[in-house]
Amino acid sequence: MPRPIQATIHTQALAHNLNQARHHAPDARVWAVVKANAYGHGIERAFAGLRGADGFALLDLAEAQRVRDLGWRGPILLLEGVFEQRDLELCSRLDLWHTVHCDQQIDMLATHKTNVPQRVFLKMNTGMNRLGFAPGQYRSAWTRLNALPQVDEISHMTHFSDADGPAGVARQMAVFDAHTADLPGERTVSNSAAVLRHSLSSDWVRPGIAVYGSAPDHPANTAAHWGLQPTMTLQAKVIAVQTLQAGDTVGYGSSYRADGSMRIGVVACGYADGYPRICPTGTPVLVDGAKSRTLGRVSMDMLSVDLSALPEAGQGSTVTLWGRAANGAVQPIDEVAAQAGTLAYELMCALAQRVPVVVEP
Ligand SMILES: *Cc1c(COP(=O)(O)O)cnc(C)c1O
């Protein structure tokens, strides 16, 4: 028998969350962002839930190929554009739209041999300082692109650094608007936080994390607040029970010490499954759908949970590390991420290869 650990991808929840994003930007077309293997969900596993999107946005040409292999004929956008000249051939072959964020990419287009002009998304750096042309150089980049026979429609794109926080999007939006106002073409600006928090629309919006059921602005707001449902559940079983007396300790480093007698469950999930080792004692879990907490250090293959208040629980009980329990109770992944000092993005992406995954219709 395989280890009793399993991840579940919730197809309905993906579709629901995609609709929530649509609801906040009703006039926009929606890219479902499926980079990083659909935020760790698996592109093939997430596809059924996301096929209602207007397009798929990602970074990796191999992932674009996988989306085409699933039969998707609609738009696919490469969010970082091409990395080398021959990628443009694949763009032609797979009919990919691609971001142009630097002069080198324009150079590559200029020498690309094709009869079919490509649709590009010209990216402006409005303050994130990651990718994109400086506002002052944007127009000349556009003019250069616009003169190329290899280029079809040119759309405009930027990415926000603070859509999830107090600084917001106004400053970057003003820069973007000022430098694109009189240029023709569609626009795409919003990630999940900009869609949900700022109801900021454009021709295309680009929600990622919200589609996967995590609040982009946790802890200011929760996934439940935004009406988002978990799309990934990580569950494992209790494989041993220990009874402790006052002074007994749990796990490596004896970091947890019992105050009095208590029962603990040892769960078949550890950091080698993608559960963060840094999660301290007290990180929330559900045991058979009831609230509990972790105790002591997370080890490679196991972690311990408190069963003291759960007399019915024991060997064979199902522990929900994040996601939805059988009784419908939810352990928000955002709460686990917060305990680990990180974001749900990282936890989802770090789900380990060795965890078996099932797709729930
Ligand atoms: C990842 C990414 C997104 C999606 O961001 P979320 O915060 O997950 O919604 C949108 N646009 C670009 C350019 C990205 O790289």
Automatic annotation (TrEMBL):
Reactions the enzyme catalyzes:
L-alanine = D-alanine
The active site lies at 35, 252
According to the UniProt entry, what is the EC number of this protein?
5.1.1.1
Q: Which InterPro entries match?
A: Ala_racemase, Ala_racemase/Decarboxylase_C, Ala_racemase_C, Ala_racemase_N, Ala_racemase_pyridoxalP-BS, PLP-binding_barrel
**Sequence ranges assigned to domain Alanine racemase C-terminal in this UniProt record:** 231-360
Record-listed N6-(pyridoxal phosphate)lysine modification sites: 35
**Top class in the EC scheme:** isomerase
Query: Which pathway features in its UniProt record?
Result: Amino-acid biosynthesis; D-alanine biosynthesis; D-alanine from L-alanine: step 1/1
A Gene Ontology annotation in the biological process aspect, one of them, is:
D-alanine biosynthetic process
Give cofactor(s), names only.
Answer: pyridoxal 5'-phosphate
Query: Among the entry's GO cellular component annotations, what is one?
Result: cytosol
Q: Which Gene3D superfamilies match?
A: Alanine racemase, Lyase, Ornithine Decarboxylase, Chain A, domain 1
Which Gene Ontology molecular function entries are recorded, alphabetically? alanine racemase activity; pyridoxal phosphate binding
Residues reported to bind substrate: 130, 300
Q: Write the record's keywords in alphabetical order, separated by commas.
A: Isomerase, Pyridoxal phosphate
Q: Which family does it belong to?
A: Belongs to the alanine racemase family.
* Its job: Catalyzes the interconversion of L-alanine and D-alanine. May also act on other amino acids.
* Alphabetized NCBIfam families for the sequence: alr
**What name appears for this protein in its UniProt entry?**
Alanine racemase
Q: Which species is listed as the source?
A: Rhodoferax lacus
